[in-house]
Amino acid sequence: MRLLSLGKIVATLALAAALSACLDATVDVALTSPGAARVSIVETMGADFYAMLDTEAGKDEGDGAEYCLHGRLRLDGDGSAICTQVEEGAFETLAATRRDPGLAFTPAGPNRVRISLPLALLREEIGAGEATDSEGRETIAALFAGRTLTIRFSGKSIVATNMDPADDGKSAQRVLPFLDLINGTGDLPKTLYAVVEAP
Fold first, then answer.
1. What pLDDT, in 10s, does the model give residues 91-139?
2. Cα–Cα distance measured from residue 82 to residue 180, given in angstroms and rounded to the nearest whole number
3. Which terminus in the chain has less CB density within 10 A, N or C?
4. CA distance 127 to 1
5. Are 134 and 162 in contact (CB under 8 A)?
6. 8 A C-beta contact, residue 67 and residue 54
7. How high is the mean pLDDT of the chain?
8. What is the DSSP string of 49-99?
9. Phi first, then psi: what are they for 153, rounded to 5°?
10. Inter-residue contact 173 to 150 (CB < 8 Å)
């Protein structure tokens, strides 16, 4: 996965007041067969922060080159930015493309796969330890208060999970407050998982 890192955020805001509506994100992992999946990442950034990030990158008009390197950028009328990244293929291909060790696919019986994501590795992915000084921590706290990262696993049906299953039984998700994830606080499991039956 390629989520925007906290180090980039703090560097961009080094001389700025904290801005509201910074960033929400969703990681959606859909099992498409016993050996393949589609991984979608959607990051939504508030207008003020996106404008500052874009200016920091030296752009006259927002083309998302620095923010959405590996995805499709959409700018809304209010100036907010939505970056959508989609990767699809065999598990081995996804592992090579993502270039991170976090998301794992493990056979769990006939036509079943255990999808898992260790939260410690997710914290490393977003650079949770990069803002160590008091000013950086205060900036992060102000920016991410009330902001969330949603992790969702889906397929034909959910067999077992430590996440919140949907009413239709086809998906399970966990909404993670960004500050709990960044600070390692809150009632979070070490690993999110779901045993999913493939379509």
1. 988 877 654 557 899 999 999 999 999 988 777 776 665 555 676 677 7
2. 23
3. C
4. 13
5. no
6. yes
7. 79
8. HHHHHHHHTT-SS---TTT-TTSEEEE-TTS-EEEEEEEEEEHHHHHHHH-
9. -115, 140
10. yes
What's the one-letter identity of residue 177?
P
Closest CA to 175 of 141, 144, 152, 143: 152
**Average pLDDT by consecutive 10-residue portion of the chain (199 residues)?**
52 41 82 95 79 60 57 84 89 72 88 94 69 67 81 97 98 92 86 97
Amino acid at 94: L
Q: Tell me which residue has tokens 């390692």.
A: 184
User: What residues does 25 pair with on adjacent strands?
Assistant: 43, 149
CA distance 112 to 92: 17
Residues 135, 166: Cα–Cα separation, whole Å: 40
The 8-class DSSP code of residue 133 comes to S
